[in-house]
């Protein structure tokens, strides 16, 4: 599954939210938090345009394409409860998001790259698919290679990790345990998910 590799600061400015967390994109967004482009006058966004923006936030924040989003949306519809909340909870359960939320990396693209390159183990087995869905009790560790431990030790020591109630992270052993499934309250992305549901239901 492909993911966006273009100018991240422009996406942050276009969506009005820091969906990309790397230092350069955040600095650019703080400096100019207006949409990119030559002309400052903007037309009033349509209902369709607003819903599209909310949908794009989810895609860029979690790092997947339209097909993957619609797959998660279909799964969220099948589950009991609010479809939009189910959608975001499913996104939160992706392995690359868990690696980021635990504190192994500073950004989701960094987490995705590490997983694809085989840096991580899930329950003692090497994994290379960022889209794997975690479950309560899953244990995420680094492979037993000194160079990997040194590299991720530097990342952990230089990044302040956000509090995440459903993941227990041991920063000394570099080990994360999924203690429970996330809830809608655990989602850190500011998005109007009801608009996303209406957009995808068209």
Give an account of the 3D structure.
The structure is a single chain. This protein folds into two domains: 8-85 and 188-200, Ribosomal protein S4/S9, N-terminal domain (Ribosomal Protein S4 Delta 41, Chain A, domain 1, Orthogonal Bundle); 94-181, RNA-binding S4 domain (Structural Genomics Hypothetical 15.5 Kd Protein In mrcA-pckA Intergenic Region, Chain A), CATH 3.10.290. It is built from nine helices and five strands; from the N terminus they run αααααααβββαββα. The chain has helices at 8-15, 23-31, 47-62, 66-78, 83-92, 95-102, 108-116, 146-158, 193-200, and strands at residues 120-122, 125-126, 139-142, 167-170, 175-178. The protein has a five-stranded antiparallel sheet, with helices on one face. It starts with 7 loop residues before the first helix and ends with a helix. 32% of the residues are buried. By secondary structure, the chain is of the alpha+beta class. It is 47% helix and 8% strand.
């Amino acid at each position: 599954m492909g993911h966006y590799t273009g100018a991240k600061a422009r996406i942050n400015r276009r969506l009005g939210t820091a969906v990309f967390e790397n230092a350069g994109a955040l600095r650019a967004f703080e400096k100019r938090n207006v949409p990119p482009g030559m002309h400052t006058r903007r037309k009033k966004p349509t209902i369709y345009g607003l819903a599209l923006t909310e949908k794009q936030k989810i895609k860029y924040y979690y790092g997947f394409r339209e097909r993957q989003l619609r797959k998660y949306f279909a799964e969220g519809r099948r589950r009991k409860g609010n479809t939009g909340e189910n959608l975001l909870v499913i996104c939160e359960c992706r392995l690359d998001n868990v690696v980021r939320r635990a504190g192994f990396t500073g950004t989701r693209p960094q987490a995705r790259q590490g997983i694809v390159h085989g840096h991580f183990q899930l329950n003692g087995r090497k994994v290379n698919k960022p889209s794997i869905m975690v479950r309560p009790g899953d244990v995420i560790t680094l492979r037993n290679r000194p160079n990997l431990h040194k590299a991720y030790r530097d990342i952990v020591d230089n990044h302040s990790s956000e509090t995440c109630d459903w993941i227990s992270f041991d920063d000394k052993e570099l080990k994360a345990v999924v203690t429970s499934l996330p809830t809608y309250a655990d989602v850190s992305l500011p998005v109007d998910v009801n608009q996303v549901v209406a957009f995808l239901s068209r």
